[in-house]
Amino acid sequence: MKKTKKRISAAIKQIILILMTLVMFFPLYIVFVMGTYYSEDIFKGLPMLPSDYFLTNLKLVISKGFFSAYLNSITVSVASVILSVLVSTMIGFALAKYNFKGKKFIFAFVMAIMMIPGQISMIGYMLEMRKMNLINTLLPLIFTWAAHPLGAFLMMQFISDGIPDELLESARLDGCSEPGIFFKIVIPCIKSGFVTLATLVFLWSWNNYVLPLILINKQELFTIPLMVNNLSNAFRSDYGAIMCALGLSVLPMIVIFSLCSRTFIQGIAAGAVKG
Q: What are the tens digits of pLDDT across the range 15-44?
């Protein structure tokens, strides 16, 4: 009897979870369906089934430089992940496991920067990039993630509680260098934190719109958000093509989150407990 109740309870939970999943994926499904419609037909009612206008919308999206924007976004996002995760892990390792003069000030500075919206420093960053002659290049979109305060704080939390000091001392006694400790011990021990930060930075970089908007005005350097915005003009917005582009642009995020979801959730949960 107890086993039957447990099975019924488990089945009910699974049904509820499936229904919640369907509800959450419904808006994404509607986006894909709208991408198969002519722009004016979208406003005749909520479309539930695909139409036959997908190829026309796809041709328009491709003609606006979709593949070029896709490649630019992938390049920027992957480079941002590598740079941000590496620098943030180094900062977190230094703050968590080293004692040096000014450590408390640096930690307080990192915490203070976390509370300041990024938009406040955007003008100064743009002027800095202009002085360096990096306007209309993809490099400013990558460099902005080099010193990310949230990433540094997150990695510091993982390293502080996830790696015992005795393990590091043992490695030093065995003759391992500090870079060797970092790459051979620290990084493998914080896999969940590593994947969590990498996933977040990829999503943030992929969806970044304001910074590319003020730093790039060459169409061949447009990222996905700028390309999607370019589908509208002063006279007409082709919502069918916009939805088609949005549906295609979200595919990498779905794939990445599907592959990294378990580790990502473990990292978020562990970071919450350690915080």
A: 898 888 888 888 888 888 888 888 878 888
The two structure tokens encoding residue 210: 């304001």
Per residue in 244-274, pLDDT (tens digit) is 888 888 888 888 777 766 665 555 555 444 4
- Residue 232's DSSP bridge partners are 237
- pTM for the model stands at 0.81
Largest CA distance in the chain: 75
**What is the C-alpha to C-alpha distance for residues 43 and 97, in angstroms, rounded to an integer?**
58
Structural tokens at position 52: 């036959």
**CB within 8 A of 51, min separation 6: which ones?**
33, 36, 37, 38, 41
